[in-house]
Amino acid sequence: MVVLLAALGALLAPAAIAHESTPVGVQRIEISLGARELVLTITAPPEGGGRMPVVVLPRGDAPPGAVTLAAVPAGGTPTSPVTVPVAPAGQPHQVALDAGTPGVWDVVVADGTQVARIPVTVAAPAPTPGWVWAVRVGAVLGIVALIAALALRHRPRVAVSLGAVAAVGVTVAVTAAVVAPPATSATSAAPAAPMPPAASGGHAGHAGMAMPPADPMLPAMPMTMPAAGAVTVTARTAGPATAGVPLDLALDLTDSSTGAVVDDLAIHDDALVHLAVIGPDGGLAHVHPIRTAPGRYEVRLAPSVGGRYGVFAEMERAGDGGHQVARTAVDVAGPASTAVAAPGPGGRDVAGMRAGVTASEAVAGRPTRVGVTFTENGAPVTDLQGWLGMAGHLVLLGPGAAGVPDPGDPASAFGHVHDMSPAGPAGTYGPEVAFEHTFARAGRHEVWVQVQRDWQVVTVPVTLDVAPETPSP
Questions:
Q1: Which CATH architecture fits 226-332?
Q2: b vs e for 363-395, b when ≥16 Cβ sit within 10 Å of the residue's Cβ?
Q3: Which of 187, 292, 444, 459 has its CA 20 to 30 A from that of 257?
Q4: DSSP 3-62
Q5: pTM over 0.85
Q6: Domain extents for the chain?
């Protein structure tokens, strides 16, 4: 009897663990809502629905005021939004939303002008597998019969019969547990936007493929250019785009092979879409458009000069869609840029720091290491904050048909590289961020290195000349 009790004790723990629900997990997503940069951490409710905690953290120079949050079934209209203060930067504010039923929900974030919809999947409760019921019933039967047998041990025949029943119950439970499928096959629900893998040491990135040169007389907006992958992005504005006037840019995503709306993007590197907008003055805006409807994204820009702006959208489709870069361009009216090219490797002052840029010999087809070391008043800067899950970002634009970087020329290759080195003991980075990239073509490249400090993104522009590859003798 003691042996049977021990066997039951060893059996019950694995059965309970195998039936535990796999949590949907936490989604961390950054959005550019009008003039605000917000980071939302969304903890999906348990299977079947319930409380959904959301933490809102403002970044950058968030304007005063508040935003509202609500959880609604996909496409629904909020009825009781929760007001959330969003200033000052770096101070999180948590609210609890209610997603009471299984299905696809929208976390709706609004600032009174723009409305973002972040999809979240609430998993349905999974039915209990038959083998689990067998384990439970067999275990209960065995325990009850065993207790009864011990209580009636002064009646040997009855005790032996009950002991036999206990043995049968344990046999059923053990057999069911042995033939059960592995725990990994227990039901689990994937979130609408899967989380990226945890960052590890080293360097990684996504290089945009150069597209063949196009007709130099590009059409006026709206214009559509096929992406390197399966997604096509079309850019539209509500009216004429003029330098010095805030511009609301709408992006429509469609499948280049079917023409269908693309609404299966996965969160990668803390965003659904990473948008790099490169101006004719060499300026870079690295923003994260809000999803306003299936396949529709919007972002507010502040063009400073007239000319053609290159728009590069990075995204990942769920499943086997993989990483993709789709590109288009926006024409802005106004005076042309008079800006000079950014300096090459060396020192420069930026955001109250001294940034020392180094680059190994840059040769097309060979790995090149680009590093930036930050100091302040001669002391190393070691309080850089992670941004989008990593220590730093390097964005690059290669030479176009004219031999120089041109954001409006499809021949100018685009790339985005990450420094994914682990954080220090205090959870911060610095004084150096470093990147490794293999430049496909020789010629002049515009490079921007970005880090975060005090909840502000710091951008270091660099001009890098890549030498042609020397043929082997």
A1: Sandwich (2.60)
A2: bbeeebebbbbbebeeeebebbbbbbbbbbbbb
A3: 292
A4: HHHHHHHHHHHHHHHHHSPBP--EEEEEEEETTEEEEEEEEPPPTT-EEEEEEEEEESSP
A5: no
A6: 2-20+126-185, 26-122, 226-332, 341-466
What is the model's pLDDT at position 197?
33
Tokens 């663990």 sit at which residue? 17
Mutual angle of helices 156-179 and 2-19, in 10-degree steps: 30
Bridge partners (DSSP) of residue 371 are: 358, 434
Who's near 132: CB < 8 A, 6+ residues apart? Answer: 15, 18, 19, 176, 180
Give the Cα-Cα-Cα angle 85, 91, 94 (nearest 5 degrees): 60
Q: 214: which 2 tokens? A: 């196009």
Nearest to 382 by CA among 369, 391, 393, 370: 391
Find, among 330, 8, 284, 310, the residue nearest to 142 by Cα: 8
Q: Tell me the fold of 341-466.
A: Immunoglobulin-like (2.60.40)
Per residue in 84-128, pLDDT (tens digit) is: 988 789 999 999 999 989 999 999 999 999 999 999 999 887 666
User: Do the domains 26-122 and 226-332 sit in the same CATH topology, yes or no?
Assistant: yes
The model's pLDDT over 180-235, given as tens digits with 9 standing for 90+, comes to 676 543 333 333 333 333 333 344 555 543 333 333 323 333 334 444 348 999 99
Is the pLDDT score of 438 beyond 90?
Answer: yes
Of the options 2.60.40.1930, 2.30.40.10, 3.40.718.10, 2.40.30.200, the CATH number for the domain spanning 26-122:
2.60.40.1930
